[in-house]
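FAQ: What does a ligand-bound record look like?

Like this one, built around oxalic acid:
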Amino acid sequence: MLLLHLSDLDEAGWAERLRAALGDYPVVRRGDRFDPAAIRYLLVWKPKPDAFEGLDNLELVLSIGAGVDALLKHPGLPDVPLIRFVDEDLTQRMTDYVVAQVTMHHRLHSRFQADQKARRWSQLYPPAASETCVGIMGLGVLGQDAARRLVPLGFAVRAWSRTPKAVDGVEAFVGAEQFDDFLAGTDILVNLLPLTPETAGILNMETFRKLRRGKLDGGPAIVNAARGGHQREADIVTALGDGTLGAASLDVFETEPLPADSPLWDTANCYLTPHIAAISNPQTGATYFSQVIADHEAGKPLRNVVDRGRGY
Ligand code: NDP
Ligand code: OXD
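The answer part, i.e. the structure of the complex:
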């Protein structure tokens, strides 16, 4: 039996699609009557503290999110394989977001918007894409796709990962020892890292000061589409105020929803979206998770199992 435990999501819609995809296999929701001991699979998003109580025969935990940082911190998480969501539709949406923000900063959106507001005619030519370097932190499923879509647009693309990764047309940097070199040539820094103890707070003033200056009018830009825990928001406000950064696009925040009194709301050249860069689509999600269950039932190898030691 599959149990859905989806907070802040359309659980009924997911249940309907999963029932259609799984045929005869029973799917239940939290409010339904069922024997907890009969639950073998749990599909979760933002699990409540008691989410795993009584589920003594659980075989797999299925995460509707691609990122599992919060789930890994859940004190009740049992020691069974944890499968994260990896999906073309989600990947496409994330790349859409990244490309939109990168091209906006490359074409100096902040500068020309300010000129328009001031009714100021002031010609300034943005650098060519080939003169602009996008540095992507994280060269996993999402980082690789974003890189592959930015290269044909003509950008110089570099990326930083924990272990060596090769993507055509992308200059690769690896590990802590190459982090500063990676930053030194980056004009637009894109964060697509998982949130782990090693990556928490990585978007901070020290990092911003190491980015390349002189290519983008107003200063380098950052794009954070990964997790709020990666960013030091006070540093972002300071860096945008003193010119260390020219612009920032933030989809995720230290506290979500972003509190009404956060200074980020009113910070110039800071572009905020409410964690909508890439949603998990129930239609493709039902196909993915029903296939995971079918594979497991057939004794086939599991896909996209989270490595708890690495934290992603
Ligand atoms: P992956 O696990 O596929 O990729 C992670 C990448 O980060 C890998 O290249 C990995 O290196 C690298 N990495 C991890 N730790 C370090 C480190 N300490 N130093 C350098 N590189 C490191 O993740 P995804 O691409 O699928 O997703 C990335 C994140 O995006 C998710 O964890 C989630 O938080 C976020 N996300 C946000 C969404 C939104 O709507 N805002 C939607 C979906 C995801 P290596 O290749 O060596 O393993
Ligand atoms: C995810 C997210 O991790 O939506 O999938 O943030």
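Follow-up question: can I read anything off the structure? Yes, for example: The domain at 2-87+282-297 is CATH 3.40.50.720 (Rossmann fold).
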